[in-house]
Amino acid sequence: MPEVVFTPEANPVLPVFSQAVISKGTIYVSGNIGCDKNMKIVGDIKAQTRAALENIAIVLKASGSDLNYIVKANIYLTNMARDFKPMNEVYAEFFDKDRMPARTCIGVAALPMGADFEMECTAEIPEK
After folding, report:
1. Using CA atoms, how far apart are residues 67 and 110, in angstroms rounded to an integer?
2. pLDDT score, position 89
3. What share of the chain has pLDDT > 70, as a percent?
4. In this model, does residue 29 exceed pLDDT 80?
5. pTM assigned to the model
6. For a designed S-S bond to 22, which of 3, 9, 59, 75 qualifies (C-beta 3.0 to 4.6 A apart)?
């Protein structure tokens, strides 16, 4: 049976999904937008990217993992032409340049709460 992950250290989620779910040693992290604990969007694309990745790191830690174990990331941007380069600058700060996860980046028409960035990911739980 899948295990729902909840940590009060991470930003709250809407009541229609979980922060993450663990199934068979894999963590499926729900989409994270760049907001604070009060669900307010936090500035430009760099700030939103940083806030979302920091929150994902908190959820992964609560799941027994961390950013180093992300296998696949999916990123959604509302303005690919404007935001792809600055988003990547911040994204690269969170990962070893020789061990980047697989990734897809998709341009979308809109994101929740007017966000410019959203990221979801799949990660492994490391063996102890």
Report:
1. 26
2. 98
3. 100
4. yes
5. 0.96
6. 3
| Side chain identity at residue 64, one-letter code | G
With beta carbons less than 8 A apart as the criterion, state whether 57 and 66 touch. Answer: yes
Q: Taking the mean position of all CA atoms in its chain, how far away is CA 93? A: 14
Over residues 58-93, the pLDDT tens digits come to: 999 999 999 999 999 999 999 999 999 999 999 999
Alpha helices in 1-124 (DSSP H): 45-62, 80-93
Q: Which two tokens stand for residue 109?
A: 């028409």
Which is it for strands 70-77 and 102-107: parallel, antiparallel or unpaired? parallel
Separate counts of helices (H) and strands (E) for the chain: 2, 6
For residue 33, the one-letter residue type is: I
What does the H/E/C string look like for the chain? CCEEECCCCCCCCCCCCCCEEEECCEEEEEEEECECCCCCECCCHHHHHHHHHHHHHHHHHHCCCCHHHEEEEEEEECCHHHHHHHHHHHHHHCCCCCCCCEEEEEECCCCHHHCCEEEEEEEECCCC
